[in-house]
Each structure stands twice: as C-alpha cells, then as structure tokens.
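Record format v2
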Amino acid sequence: MMVANEEKAASVSRRNLLVKAGIALNAIAGALIGIPILGFVVSGLKGRSQKDTWISLGSISQFPEGETRMAVYRNPYTRPWDGDTAQIPCWVRHIEGSKFQVFAINCTHLGCPVRWFPGSHLFMCPCHGGAFYEDGTRASGPPPRGLYEYKYKVEDGALSVMGGHLPTLADPLSSRNTPCGQPCPESPASNKGLIKIDGDSRPC
Amino acid sequence: MLRSIALWLEERLNITKVFEATAGHKVPPSTNSWFYVFGSGTLICFVIQIITGICLAFVYVPSTDQAWTSLQYLNHQQFLGWFLRAVHNWGSNFMVGIMTLHLVQTFLFGAYKYPRELTWLSGCVLFLCTLGMAFTGQIMRFDQDAYWGLGIGASIMGRMPFIGADLVRVVLAGPIIAGETLSRFFTLHVFVIPGLIIAIVSMHLRLVLNKGINEYPKPGVLVNKETYVEQYEEHIHKEGVPFVPNVIGKDLIFGGCLILAICACAFYFGPAGPTGPPNPTLIRALPKPDFYFLPIFASLALLPDYMETFLLLVAPVIGIAVLFLVPFVSGTGEKSYRRRPIAVLTVLVAFLALGLLAWLGTYSPWSPKMDAWSSKPIPLEFLKGRSPLQLEGALLIQSKQCHNCHSLGGEGGMRGPALDVVATRLTRDQLIRQVIQGGGNMPAYGKNLKPAEVDALVSFMESLRPNYQPGAHDFSR
C-alpha cells in the first residue's frame, strides 16, 4: 500500500515537472514566434519615422502667375503595386514671382478632394459642402480650418514641395506657421499631434 | 440494406443524440411565429456571403494596381462574374437589413433579459462585425468611392487626440493610401472578421441551445431571476415541441424567400460599381458610402462643427455601450413590447432619425452641385424682359458659380437658399452686403467681384420677385 502511494506520488511529481517544463518550453517557443509576428504587424507604425521629403513639381513655368492649377507628383513612399494611387494631386497657386501656395487636395473636414473654381475663386468640397478661399482659408461649411499647405521651395526655376503623407488634423503638412505665400524656412516648428481649430487667422 | 447502413453509421456517429441536442431540441410552441425567422435569415445571408466571397476571391486581385481591373474583368468577362458580384453585394445589403430586424425583434420581445444577457452581447458584437464587413467590403470594391472613403476614415481617425497621427498610419498601413492599405483591408475582410464572426456565431448558437429560445412574451408575465429558469424548463418539459420538424417550417419559407429576393435583386439591379478607377488625380469624384452608412455620412455634414470631433469619437462609444448595457439595466420584469412604451418609442425614434438622415444622404443638399454653373442654364422665365444690366448679372450667376449653391427654378445646388424670390426677402442693400461680405454659410465675394459686377448681379437678383410680388422693404428708412 505504502509502495503504491509512493509510486503514485512520484508519478504525480514527475507529471508536474513535465507540465511545468512543457509550459516553459511553449512560452519560449511562443515568444520566438510571437515577437516577430507582433513586430511584423506593428511595422505600419514605422511609417511614423518616415519623414516627408522634397518632391519636385516641375518647372514653375507650368504655373502662370495669378492662377491656381493642379499639379501631380508621385508619392515618395511607393510600393511596386501602388498603381495609380501613388499619383497624388495638389493645388498650386502662383501668387507672383517666387511666391507660391501649394495646397493639399484633401479637404480639412474629412479628406475628400477639393476642386478649384476659377470663376468664383473658391475651392469646393463635394462631400459635405466645405468651401475655401483662394488663399486656402476656410470660407464656409464644416471644415475646422483652412486647407493644408505644403512647405515649398523654388530652386533653379523648379518648384518643390515637402510631402509624403496623407494630411489629417492630427498630422497636417508642415508649413502652417508661415505667412501665406512666403517660402518657408528650412525647419519650421511642426505642429504634429496638435488639433488646430483656428484655420482663418493667417496673416494674409 | 439501407437501414443496416444507417444503423451502422448511427452506432458510430450517434447522429440521433446530436440531432436531439441541436436541431431537434425542444422549444416553446409559441416561438412558431413569423417574428422568429430573422436570426436564421441572417445566418443564411452569411452563408451566401461566404460562398460567393470564396468564389470571387478566385478571380479578384487584392492589389491597388489590379483590383479595379479584376473587378471589371469579373463584371464583363468572367462567366457569371457579374451575377456573383451582384449576389455578394445584395447579400450584404440583406444581411445588414435582416440583422437589424433581428436586433429590433429581440429588443422588443425582451429576449435580452435574464438569463440570455450573453446571447444579446454576442449578438451585438456580431452586429458590429457585420458593419465592419460592410465597410471593408466597400473598400474591396476598390474604386474612387473606396479611395476617398478610406480618406474619410483616416480623417476621422486623425481627430483622435494624442494617438491620431499614429492611428492613421496603422489604419492605412503607411503614411498615405497606397499598396499596403488595400492588402490590410483585404486581410480584415477575408480572414480576420469572418473568422471572428464564425467563432462568435458558434457561441451565439450554443447560448441559444443552452438557455433556450425566448418564449413569445405575454403582457403581464414578468421575468423573475428566482423563478424564471425553473418555469421555463417546466414549460419546455410539458409543452415543448422539437424545433425540427415542428417549428422550422416558417424559417424555411422565409429563408427560401430571402434567397430568391437576393437573386432577384442581383439579377435585376446587377453588381454595384466599380465607379471610376481609384486614381486620386481624377477629382471629379462624388464619394458616397453604401446606404447603411448614409446616416453617418449625413450627420457628418449636419453636425455643428464645435461638437463634431467630440461626437465623431465619443457618440459611437456611447451608442455601443448603451447597446451592451441594455440587459444589465433592464434584465428582469416585463418582456412584452405591449407594456414597454419607451422601448417601442426608442425604436421608432431611432429608425425615424436614421431613415431621415439616410434619405438626406441620398441627395446631400449640403453639397454644392459641382457642375451646375455649366450644366444647368437659368430657366427662360427668369430672363424674359430683363434689362441688359440684369442679363449681365444672370450671366455672372453662372460664371461665378453662384448656381452651384443656389437653385433657380428648382435647378442647381441646395447649399444656399433658392434665389427664385430672393428680392421679396432681401433689399438691395442687404443683397450687396451678403454678396460682398458673405455670412451664414456663404463665402464673401468682395475680393472676387468688381463693383460693376456686384451692381449687375444685384440688379438681376432685385428682379427675382415673380408675379409682381412686392420687393423687400427696409422699414428703418
């Protein structure tokens, strides 16, 4: 009887050991598989570290003074299978000389494509009725601020803008703090992470 | 011979036992009702979606540069591709519709009350999963609407404080809508959410078997936690009838009609889209979601802007929380809708509001008619007998795109008030002020109009008082 009990106890403790060792082994194996999986999944966040870059919009002769025209650039962060989605439009307003304003196509309300109407000098949005004046300030409708404006530079007669991401209220384009129509200093204070509600107070 | 094969199989598979525990389980005879068919109807829709979805995936290419082309191929070249796309689209419409009926029926019949709280909760999660399938499904139809729909989704995410920018990048799988975005939504639509739905449906059905189906509520019979389960089991024991074959008849008839209706709609209306290719430079797009998201689309245009971000981010959370809390707030007591006026009223108000918003969403009066200035001429009656100056003003209504927001003779935008009788409402001075300074929802045109143009425009508008109605008069003068 005693012998049987001892044998049972021994087998239970051996089973315990096996269970514990099994759990430990699986924890290690799980981590080995799980950590790379997690890293793979959250790699979308790495996009955060992808800084915007200078993108050429071509010669400034395409943009007559006093007019606003659409320009198209190729998104700098492309995948081989992007197709047409990598063609990003923007609105270029040539004020005079080397003074420009380059606006994102996306309405500041919910990102729909705004259209320029030369007759009324307005940008209008087809989704919820937002409208913006020619200098990008909010004219009417639900948008909480003026159009997103690219930082730009003119070099050797060519216009370049700083871009590469979809502008949203949390992450607008980076030239918001400069007076409109002025070329931007190289590193303006970025207002990333801030939701700016006053879109109409630019010194224009 | 057949009988011996059947017995041989039965001995090994225990089919009779499985049958008695599932399809043949006993239910209250009162559930043999046309109100109890929506759950199985939703399940039928889901099965149709799985089968047609698998078939479509044989051909569909989930890549940003090929998806649109493969949809065109499905529509026009693949044998019966158009029909399968149409069935998948109408199947989703019906699934959302029937599932909503199921939700309303279980709410009004008090089926969420003790002891079926978890059945309700899992149903709510299934409802959200189905809406997730509907949204990601719209993205699969990778056209202009899908592209800008993604932009709208990202812009909503971008309003989230602190984590907005990161969230946008997670949702879009990168800094901008591009190659990986569609792959991400494809994975959600085809693997992740359907997997979740299958798992939760299993649990939902398991709960229905465990806790029994809700009896048809009688007014005045209250749910009491101490006695309910005992009473229910006694009722089943005494009067219960097997679901198959006694009760399934109505489910079968409804399910059959449902499949026929889906096929009929698919055959008659055909597949949805795709609209124009997902090329962001083609900005002549009028992005609009499918009908079940129209109420959200409409409220985004109509919410006052000071509360918009708050409502966008907080209202859905509150709405879902309320749905989840229903069985814990009123888990006992009266079940019958005949004695629950507030429940009935809630459903009516919710449907009125959603219906009204969806109806407004179909023609979105808040959006300018983008091409009215060039495609909708001013009707002749507004031009007859006008002076040259007034005619010049009429021309400006077109060339300055006033017509995009203001209608004349029922044609044109509805963003601003119709101009048909504007002179009876505003005096000349008020008209000039409104044109130059804007106000209300109107942009200011002061910088954009020469004084002579303002003069012409206002002269024309002053003539807009048909049938010799008196013009507006400034009584302070």
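The longest helix of chain A spans residues 2-41.
Chain A touches chain B through 60 residues (CB under 8 Å).
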